[in-house]
Every structure is written in structure tokens, then in C-alpha cells.
Amino acid sequence: MSGDGERRQRAVMATDEEWERIGRAAAAAGMDRSRFVVHRALMAEPLPAEVLRRAVREMLVQSALEERRLREAGLGGTWEDACDAVEEWIEREGMLERLTDAGAANRWKALGDPEAGS
Question: How far does the chain reach from its first CA to its final CA, in angstroms?
Fold first, then answer.
């Protein structure tokens, strides 16, 4: 990058299928292809697999405990409603990769805000 931050045209080699996938992912992230490619190339390294495995394990344990707590309190319907809401949101998001983009949390929060729309 030049010292003044000027962006310059570059070339990227990709198959048609790869280019389409990049386009869909960029659109889902609200970016043009160029900005998306730069963003993804320069973003921090992903978490190590062991860290992700432990985080998912702990989340699943917490989920199981909460489900048990709600069912024992006679609130199994509350658990089912929450699961349905999450499932509908994931379905609307489409590709699971979209769940890792910065806007995913905001789109989830907007579901609880009637003025934000869905």
C-alpha cells in the first residue's frame, strides 16, 4: 500500500465457481469483492482448533444444563421457543460462514428489536 493510503488495482486468479462464492460471501458481509478479499486476507488468524473445540464443548454443556433447568421448572416450552427462534435465525442467515461475520451479532440482536425489522 502506498504511504498515502491510495488503493490500487490488483489482480486475483480464481475459478468462476470460486469467484461466485467470493461474491456471495462479500455480499453477505456487506462488502464489495475487493474489500472482502483484502479484509479476509488481513484478518487475524483463526483460533486454534483446540480452542474452538473447548469453546463449543462448554457452550453445549451450558446449553444442556439450561435445558434441564427449564424442563425441571416446568418451562420446557420456553426452551423450545428459544430453540425455534435460533433455528429460524440460522436458516435466514443461510451459509454458516455468515455467522462469523461482524454483522451476525447485530442481525441477531435486531430480532429482539421490533423497530429494527427482521
Answer: 39
- Secondary structure of 9-39 in HEC code, one letter for each residue: CCCCCCCHHHHHHHHHHHHHCCCCHHHHHHH
pLDDT in tens, 65-114: 999 999 999 998 998 999 888 888 877 776 555 666 666 666 666 666 54
Task: Identify the sign of the CA torsion 56, 83, 107, 115.
Answer: negative
With respect to residue 22, please indicate whether it lies within any of the assigned structural domains: yes
Evaluate if pTM is beyond 0.70. no
d(Cα 53, Cα 34) in Å, to the nearest integer? 32
Domain count, the chain: 1
Enclosing domain of residue 29: 7-43
If you write DSSP's letter for every residue of 69-98 in order, what string do you get? HHHHTT-HHHHHHHHHHHHHHHHHH-SGGG
Is position 62 within any domain?
Answer: no
Provide the Cα torsion 20, 104, 31, 113; round to 10°: 130
The answer to whether residue 2 is domain-embedded is no
